[in-house]
Design brief:
Blueprint (H helix, E strand, L loop, with lengths): L13 E9 L2 E11 L2 E8 L6 E8 L11 E2 H4 L7 E6 L6 E10 L2 E6 L2 E7 L5 E6 L2 E6 L7 H9 L1 E4 L5 E4 L6 E2 L4 E3 L10 H11 L4 E10 L2 E10 L5 E3 L10 E2 L4 E4 L4 H9 L4 E4 L7
Parallel strand pairs: 5-6, 12-21, 15-18
Antiparallel strand pairs: 1-2, 1-11, 2-3, 3-4, 6-7, 7-8, 8-9, 9-10, 10-11, 12-17, 13-21, 14-20, 15-19, 16-17, 16-20, 17-18
Length: about 290
């Protein structure tokens, strides 16, 4: 299952609905249907410039594999998987790799999916109930939830920027929040795709262990600040944007248009922005008297 903000997969027998949350803030929904050998996955989320709907269908063989002889990640997590690794692929990005169940005990399972750690909990019926990966969480619900548009819409509409000139910052000041370390290079070999910034960044980290660090924060474009993810090269310190806003591949984007959040605080800071407890300003603009 791919969410456009974060790649991830879930499946329950028949029809299952999930609420998708970022640090406690609902930002989308997921529906998965299994009818015999037919698997259908649908999702919609607002952690991008417009609500994005995804639907994908697969015909599975008797072992739950699709036409590429790998198991859809959704099918692999239907029930607690056996300990060990299985060839899987992501239903939307088509990324191939392994799903590895390191710990399967009672109603919990911990492991990695396409090199990304996950924690899963299963209900009394043996089917997936909750799943967390990083700052994204899924909770099984009766019906497709209605998003709190008054809050979640800011993910798709961006945050207003107060003041003009100077680098982005938060008001009030937050320790550890800073502009990018230097100009950010738009990816030279990647199509510009701001809609999938986090998925692109995480895929690059998985495919190049130790080469990159994940950056989470905001980027300025068209007069607003958008939740965004990009990379920092571990060896050189060069910042690299695989989903670049405002620049063709190979161009360099101003460091002051990027605002870096401490990784452990990113979820909390996004929520504070949604709640109006923090504001985005430039330079000395936006100061309250």
């Amino acid at each position: 299952m791919v969410l456009g903000f974060l790649p991830l997969t879930v499946l329950l027998a028949q029809t299952a609905n999930y609420e998708m949350s970022l640090a406690g803030t609902p930002v989308g929904w997921v529906r998965v249907e299994l009818d015999g050998h037919h698997l259908r996955y649908q999702s919609e989320h607002v952690f991008r410039r417009a609500q994005a709907h995804t639907q994908v269908d697969y015909l599975l063989d008797a072992q739950g594999r699709a036409e590429n002889d790998s198991m859809p990640s959704a099918r692999w997590l239907l029930r607690p998987p056996p300990a060990g690794c299985t060839a899987v692929f992501d239903e939307v990005t088509k990324e191939k790799g392994e799903g590895c169940a390191a710990v399967v005990q009672g109603n919990v399972c911990h492991g990695t999916l396409l090199r990304q750690p996950f924690n899963a909990r299963y209900g009394q019926d043996g089917l997936l109930e909750q799943l967390t990966v990083g700052i994204i969480a899924f909770r099984r619900v009766e019906k497709v939830p209605l998003l709190d548009v008054s809050r979640a819409r800011l993910f798709s509409e961006g945050f207003p920027i107060e003041g003009v000139g100077g680098a982005l910052r938060l008001a009030p000041w937050v320790k550890g929040v800073k502009p990018a370390d230097g100009d950010v290079q738009a990816a030279a070999e990647q199509a510009v795709n701001p809609q999938a910034c986090l998925a692109l960044a995480q895929a690059a980290i998985r495919q190049n262990p130790g080469k990159f660090q994940l950056r989470l924060g905001l980027v300025a474009d068209e007069g607003r600040a958008w939740p965004h993810a990009w990379l920092k090269e571990t060896a050189t310190g060069q910042e690299l944007d695989l989903g670049a806003y405002g620049g063709e591949p190979g161009t360099r984007l101003p460091a002051g248009d990027y605002l870096v959040f401490p990784p452990a605080e990113a979820g909390r800071l996004y929520v504070a922005l949604l709640e109006g407890k923090l504001r985005v300003v430039r330079g000395s603009g936006g100061q309250k008297k």
